Amino acid sequence: MYGKVVGVGRVVEGTSKKTGNPYHGQTIHMLCEKREVEGHAAREQFVNFLDMDKPPLFKLGDTVFMDFDEKGYLLSLEIVPPEK
Question: Max Cα separation, the chain?
């Protein structure tokens, strides 16, 4: 799924009170295409940096490509370079 970054949350780090698992990541807000929606749909996605070798640096206006598994968990994320 492709999306355009329109908002970037602060980087958070800690341990989940519910599961005890560590987290370190950032929430991004983006606009993407969605079936049966005229225009764009808004989506919020938490990106866990612990699952990545090198955390991405998100900027407003970036285009991102995200791949999800069948349960909706983020498998991969790539910042698409701007067209020249």
Answer: 46
